[in-house]
Amino acid sequence: MSDVDGTEPGARARLAAFRLADSFLPVGGNTVSYGLEQFVQSGAITDGDDLREVLESYLRRQVGPCETVAIRAAHAAADDLDALAQIDETLRATTLAAEFRESATKAGRRLLEVEAQTGDDPVIAAYEERVASSDAPGNYPVALGLVAARRGIDAEEACLLHAHSFVTDMLGAAQRLLSLGHVTAQRVLDDLAPVAADVVAANEGREIDRMEPFAPLVDVHAMEHERADRRLFMS
């Protein structure tokens, strides 16, 4: 069955997923490096092989056991604004680095604003109002889980597109920091695809109260970045 505009619902959902995974989406992904800038400045990353190893650590220790868990929880609670706000607060409390908290809420607020202004979903609009009035943080994974659910994108696909977007954003940052070649960047992206799929599957059953991000060196570099005299990225 087609929607009133003649588009199949499944096609609409897939197109929405493509848009959410696109760097063209104005949520500020090109302004953050999530501590990658400090990894490069410290000499820990000098080439594509180093970068692949560090990004795999991000996926396995941060994105998978924390952010994809929040996405799934928000997806499941997409009709309950109070539950969404609680998930949002839990994610904020779990995120140690101040710059990570700031960049996550800025991106989430931008996503909710774009969706509220370009769509007509009442739940997204209502949650955007709560976030705008500071009744909820508006972390990006929570906003993404909500938007995905309301757009008909299943939870697994939302988690996969988030992992993909995270890696592409980091590769974009690395190209500016390392003069990384386009082919090398694509090779790293391809190498990390099975890792992304693995971490999404591995954390499928993890509950929100068991979010366990554990990447101490990432947190240390993020805190160093906060005090750095010269910074190319906001995190």
From TrEMBL:
<dbReference type="InterPro" id="IPR038277">
    <property type="entry name" value="UreF_sf"/>
</dbReference>
<dbReference type="Pfam" id="PF01730">
    <property type="entry name" value="UreF"/>
</dbReference>
<protein>
    <submittedName>
        <fullName>Urease accessory UreF family protein</fullName>
    </submittedName>
</protein>
<dbReference type="InterPro" id="IPR002639">
    <property type="entry name" value="UreF"/>
</dbReference>
<keyword id="KW-0996">Nickel insertion</keyword>
<keyword id="KW-0143">Chaperone</keyword>
<dbReference type="GO" id="GO:0016151">
    <property type="term" value="F:nickel cation binding"/>
</dbReference>
